[in-house]
Design goal:
Length: about 150
């Protein structure tokens, strides 16, 4: 760090203290991600529809029932992407853009529904793929509220 950078950094820290902030702001000052207190009811049928493509009707019914009872947990966006082995959809996708606008307006999002596919060492995003892509576009380290079974 040069002397100039050090001086600017020190000045910035003093300004932060004068403003009454207790810590340095995050480098990614994008919008805050807000979450609903629980999964929206219509997300379970959407997950059911998707999971029936992969699993039998019996297995899908069991997984959705377990998702309904699962506790909410948080994982980083980048970790969910790595575990799912899916590609990131861009903002040109209309569903991702719709979710980005919700985030920018401060509208709470529904938590994601995830299923561990241990046989293939990956996570299936049963519902919430577009929300995840929208959030990742703002902050890959954002904590994603979800249920996982």
């Amino acid at each position: 760090m040069t002397k100039c950078h050090l001086v600017l950094f020190t000045i910035f820290k003093v300004i932060i203290l004068l403003l009454g902030m207790t810590e340095m702001p995050n480098a990614n000052m994008g919008p805050q991600i807000l979450w609903l207190s629980d999964v929206e009811a219509h997300d379970y049928p959407a997950a059911d529809s998707f999971l029936r493509i992969i699993y039998s009707d019996e297995r899908t019914t069991e997984l959705v029932a377990r998702l309904k009872e699962a506790p909410l947990v948080d994982f980083k966006a980048k970790d969910i992407f790595r575990a799912s082995q899916l590609s990131l959809l861009g903002v040109s996708n209309s569903h991702v853009e719709k979710d980005r606008k919700k985030i920018e307006k401060g509208i709470c999002l529904s938590p994601l529904l995830l299923v561990r596919d241990e046989e293939n060492s990956r996570v299936i995003i049963a519902d919430g793929y577009h929300r995840l892509c929208a959030i990742y576009g703002f902050d890959e380290d954002a904590l994603i509220r979800c249920k996982i079974v």
